[in-house]
Specification:
single chain; 137 residues; alpha+beta; Arc Repressor Mutant, subunit A; 6 strands
Length: 137
């Protein structure tokens, strides 16, 4: 029986290797976006370069999106809309706490639609609010 990770990869046309399955599972289980270093710490059996190669493949198939977390660190988040390049329904707001440095997903708050000139294809949006989370206040 195929795992959820395997089905997700196959649906996107990505061969489900063991490394890809591990990275997808880590992102599925993550309560918030993860950095490469956080994934490397969690996935002790994989080298950083292997994780980065997987993330690059996943991003090229619109299975993850990248965001800058407020400190200049790139974070990765699994896309919930797997026709990401066709629909913007996965673009949601994130919040960066300047005290604890956590990134929170506000999945119920959509990024406002921004009209762009003809000929431009928007593939990603980084809408990051910065401030102090309730725990740090």
């Amino acid at each position: 029986m195929n795992s959820e990770e395997t089905r997700l990869l196959e649906k996107a046309g990505v061969k489900p290797t063991s490394n890809r399955i591990l990275v997808v599972r880590a992102l599925m289980d993550a309560p918030s976006p993860k950095s490469l270093i956080e994934l490397e710490t969690e996935l002790e059996t994989l080298e950083r370069s292997s994780i980065l190669r997987v993330l690059t493949v996943l991003a090229s198939h619109d299975l993850v999106h990248l965001m800058e977390d407020g400190r200049g660190v790139t974070k990765y988040e699994l896309c919930h809309s797997h026709d990401h390049h066709l629909h913007n329904d996965d673009h949601h707001v994130h919040f960066y706490c300047e005290k604890c440095h956590e990134v929170y997903c506000f999945e119920d708050i959509a990024v406002p639609r921004i009209p762009v000139p003809d000929g431009f294809l928007v593939k990603g949006v980084n809408f990051m609010l910065k401030g102090v989370c309730p725990s740090c206040r």
